[in-house]
Amino acid sequence: MSVKSPISTWVLTSPPAKIKISIAMETLNKKKRSSRGRQKIDIKKIENEAARQVAFTKRRQGVMKKASELSILCGVEFAIVAFSPAGKPFSLGHPSVESIVARFLDHGSVAAGLAQQPAEWQLNLQCAYAPRPTPNFQL
């Protein structure tokens, strides 16, 4: 009786041949890892400048992809502005970074304008939006 394996042909006539076949098959069945796979990393500054730049590039692409997906799925308007470790600016916005920044700054000026209103008007606003106590009904 003979068994063919990818390594060579073994004739099963003696016990040592059986041992050789089982060792060869175990070696073939073991899978070698070519990489360490996805590893958990500590969230701290990467000291190596080249590794830091690579991490920035990969993570920037991931953040921008997620923001674009959020915009498509939920109709969100967003702006992202980032500077690489080398100081190069990157931005992405929907519909555009300029329109989002202008809208953000206008919204801030409206809030600042509310703070300049008379104290009585602010008190009325606070009362209007304060939580209402529930009445205690007793029978």
From TrEMBL:
Q: Which processes are annotated in GO (biological process)?
A: positive regulation of transcription by RNA polymerase II
* Sections of the chain in a coiled coil: none
Recorded GO MF terms: DNA-binding transcription factor activity, RNA polymerase II-specific; protein dimerization activity; RNA polymerase II cis-regulatory region sequence-specific DNA binding
Q: Which InterPro entries match?
A: MEF2-like_N (IPR033896), TF_MADSbox (IPR002100), TF_MADSbox_sf (IPR036879)
Q: Where does the UniProt annotation locate this protein?
A: Nucleus
> What domain of life is recorded for the organism?
Eukaryota
Query: Which UniProt keyword terms apply here?
Result: DNA-binding, Nucleus, Transcription, Transcription regulation
Gene Ontology cellular-component terms listed: nucleus
Q: Which residues form the MADS-box domain?
A: 36-96
Where do the TM regions start and end? none
What PANTHER family does this protein's entry cite? MADS BOX PROTEIN, OS02G0164450 PROTEIN
| Protein name per its UniProtKB record | MADS-box domain-containing protein
